[in-house]
Structure formats: C-alpha cells, structure tokens
Amino acid sequence: MATSSQVLKETKTTDCKNSSNCITCYLPIEIFIEIAARVSSHSLADLYHLKLTSKEIINITDDDNVYEHACLDKVPFFPDLIPKQDSFLSRCLSSGNLESLYRQGMKAFFCNSKPYEEGLDIIRMAGQKGHDRSMYAFAIIVLILKCCNNNARIGLLGVEEFEEALRFLRMLRNQKCVLKCRNDVRSFVSELSSEMQPYRLVDQAPTTHLCRRVTCKNTWRLKIGIWFWLTHDDDDENDPKMCENCRWDHELEYFCAKTLYIDVPYLLYD
C-alpha cells in the first residue's frame, strides 16, 4: 500500500509538468517533509505560517512525520477544544508524538479507576524513546509505588521496572534536567487535579527508603546541610562521593510533599 508521501510524490511529479512554480519540481518531497518536521518541532506558529504560503505546502505538510515531531509546549494541557484543535491533537497522538503520548499516559494513569497499567505503559514507552518528562514521571511513579506502601498498585511493579526507573533518573541527572522535569510533571499533575479530580496516588509519606545504611556518611542531606531545595546550579550535582540512593530518597520525599501534599515531617524545605 502506498504511503502518503509516495502518493504525494506521484501527484506532484505529474503537477510539475503543468506548473513552473511547483515547489517539488526543485525539491524532493521527502526533503521538504523533513524540513516541515523540523519547523514543527520548534514552533507550531512557524508551521502555521509555512502552511499559509500555498495549498501545495498544506498538502505536503499533512504528513505523519510532521505531526510526530510537532512541538506542543505552547498547547495547554486541557485546551478548550474546537474541532480543528481536537483533530490536530488526535493526529499528533496517532502519529506517535511523544508529548501527546506522555499526556495521554498521565491522564490514563491518574484519572481512570482501573487501567493503571495502560497509563504507566504509555508513559514508559515515551520515556524509552527519550521524552524527558515521561522518564521522570515513570521513575517517580515507580518510586512512589515501591516506597509508599501502596499495596493497591504494587502489583504493577517488578525488578525490571524499578531498575529502569533508576536508569531514567540517572540519565536525567547526567543531562542536568531533573529539576526542570519535576517542575513540568508537577504542573501537569496540578492541572489534572483541577480539571479531572484524579485518583489519589498515595496517602502517606514514604515508609521505605532506597538508602538502607543508617550510618551513611555521604548522604544528600549532609551535602546540602539541611533539606532545603536547590538552585538550578546545584541540582543534579554529580559528586562521585554522594550517595545516589539518598539523592532519590530526597527527590521522592520532595515530590510527595510539594506535589501530592503528603506530610513528610522529616523533610525540611523553604
């Protein structure tokens, strides 16, 4: 079965015989689609202006690759959809747009009464493809389920999920974007709370810690003196002497306190 790009290529090749202004007479359709995908990955406004140039470009840019890479940073989590917006976002999701998958997975996990696995699997899939917010969301959900004694959902987890969660966090830490991802995920959970009354993930502070060493002398707590939150310069500091497990214990406790509004009495912050 011919793809949309192949059909367009055949159509435009025929059209070129009848038009000296045909764009694809001078530029292969695949290259123009790649250019449009790059434009969409940086700015939907620029993509919109590109589409305004001609009907031919409107047809060319109606390609899954363009929707897959579309940047949705400026699109509200819960926009007041009109048909065109709904169609656009649905096309992004069906095209495998990672931000769309992340949003779909978060809503499925937090806001449905049963299919928790489906939502977490979607978030995980987007994380495996490199979406940083999905990596953080998957990791923090796994840590919450593991450390907060949430028996209702603990069946979702295995050793593989836990190890992947830690691997995601290490990758984000190496990229120095843990704080940014946390803030983005917090914003989304906040939107879920105001718009859809999500299922409460956990009702108590972590009861289990990743660091089991009572006499641990290389903890995150000692590094920062007290457990106030860090600046962008200090976040994700790669100190080889620092206990990694303490770092993620702190991350989990902070997220529970600041995002899920769980009382964590031993966490001191501004």
Brief rundown of the structure:
With 270 residues, this protein is mainly α.
Q: Could you list some keywords that capture this structure?
A:
270 residues, mainly alpha, disordered C terminus
Helices, by number, come to: 13
Domain count, please report it.
Answer: 2
Largest sheet: none
Task: Report helical residue fraction.
Answer: 55-70%
Mean pLDDT: 75
Overall 3D form: elongated
Structural overview:
This protein has 270 residues and is mainly α. Helices cover 58% and strands 0% of the residues. It has 13 helices and no strands. The chain has helices at residues 4-16, 29-42, 44-51, 55-61, 64-68, 83-94, 98-111, 116-128, 132-147, 159-174, 178-196, 220-224, 244-258. Mean pLDDT is 75; it is low at 9-20, 224-234 and 264-270. Residues 83-189 form the At2g35280-like TPR domain. It holds the Pfam family TPR_27. This is At2g35280-like TPR domain-containing protein. It comes from Acacia crassicarpa (northern wattle).
